[in-house]
Amino acid sequence: MNHPALPLTAPSPSARACAAFLSEARALLGDRGLTTDAERMEAWLTDWRGRYTGQALALASPATTAEVAALVKLCAAHSVPIVPQGGNSGMAGGATPDQTGTAIILSLRRMDRIRSLTPDAGQVVCEAGVILQTLHEAAEHAGMRFALTLGGKGSATIGGLISTNAGGTQVLRHGTMRAQVLGLEAVLASGEVLDLMAPLKKDNRGFDLKQLLIGSEGTLGIVTAACLRLLPAPVGRVTAWVGLGGIIAARDVLRQMERAMGDALEGFEVVPAHCLQSVLAHQPSARAPLTERHAWNALIECVSPVLDSAALREALETALANALDQGLIADAVIAANETQAEAFWALRDGISAAERALGPAMQHDISVPVETMPEFILAAGPQIEAAHPGTRAVAFGHLGDGNVHFHVLAPAGAQRGVWEETDGKAVSAQVYDLVTQWGGSISAEHGIGQMKVEELARLHDPVALSVMAAVKQALDPTGLLNPGKLLQSLPVA
Fold first, then answer.
1. Which of 25, 82, 110, 167 could make an SS bond with 445 (beta carbons 3.0 to 4.6 A apart)?
2. pLDDT (tens digit, 9 = 90+) per residue, 243-300?
3. How far apart are CA 482 and CA 10, in angstroms?
4. For residue 415, with 0-12 CB atoms within 10 Å meaning exposed, 13-18 middle and 19 or more buried, which class applies?
5. Are 437 and 450 contacting, i.e. CB atoms less than 8 angstroms apart?
6. In the CATH scheme, what is the code of domain 114-232?
């Protein structure tokens, strides 16, 4: 199957076209909705990790879907590329423009209304700029919950989470963002509004186009609103920190907890000793949950809309006691209250910041089948460290859904910003080769962005790449939407 002829670069509007576009865009959006001021744009030109910095013709902040649609039509008429941006908290540079300065950043942050929330139906309709934490608070106020959370919930937006198919710590029980989206509204490259908002449980009118847009990173359309699934607020919650002798034991404990706790098991995170010690050193107020140091730790969370915390605690205590009797775990502690439970989660959520403080590192958001993840970790770490002397490979995260964050720390004395662009690239290439050999994915939940476009083209199934290219060609033939991200590095026929 041949690749369609995709544009390899973004459209390049002339100076006259740029001036005409800016004049019309300002008339459409007003001074609040459009700025070319360098100081106001500066914060949105660099990605969250600080690895990518670009330039932009303007920062556009429409307030309604109609304004987004009109703006996209203007961009198409003047060949102005569009880089959609939510909370700018992505991990793969997917919302950062290139260095040409010809694209606009299309911020959805002003579109932050919760249009409706219906507890009886278990549904909420919200705009793309709604902050995840705001949605959590609104759902809680209504006696419900939105069952997706992550460390960046205070800045991540619904539109960005949909566009990257975000995961987080509750995927084990509730799935990724795909599973939360009941309906979708998006603006296509033509400026047409695609209305797929009806939350139908059964609909066989052809392709499920909303699923096509979810995870497309703004390359096929601009998500402006969504109808999302809500669940009843939990009645009980219990959290435990478990000490383990190895990562193989972690998988055995996971399977035992699945059998014992059933649908109540919502989170199963693994934390190696190195990561825990890094967090304790980085956060002076943090305390180790267990007295002894263990090679691996597991953070287990169980939540139920039916059982209260006392009943959940009793069930988990029994399950952990059985695991202890079988020699699967070395020690465990169950959080006595919500404060202690949050302290356990703070240790897990603090790993990235603590590792970053140690120096340069290459972070890899990868997945392999749950059944082989422990063996992958045990095999890949030593191979990477042997091939790149002085490095340290650490893996942590969502073992329950086969997704770990595989970080490779640079040798002592490596220069930040230099090592990542030299030796670090060779490290990542080897990690992705190994992941592919193990039947995994080079991007489990953070997307491809601009960070992994070359590796996707190198390692992904050629037939799948061809199908993706054909879809891009059909929906965005001029390469207007988020150029240089996800698909733009595909070879042409």
1. 167
2. 999 999 999 999 999 999 999 999 999 999 999 999 999 999 999 999 999 999 999 9
3. 8
4. exposed
5. no
6. 3.30.465.10
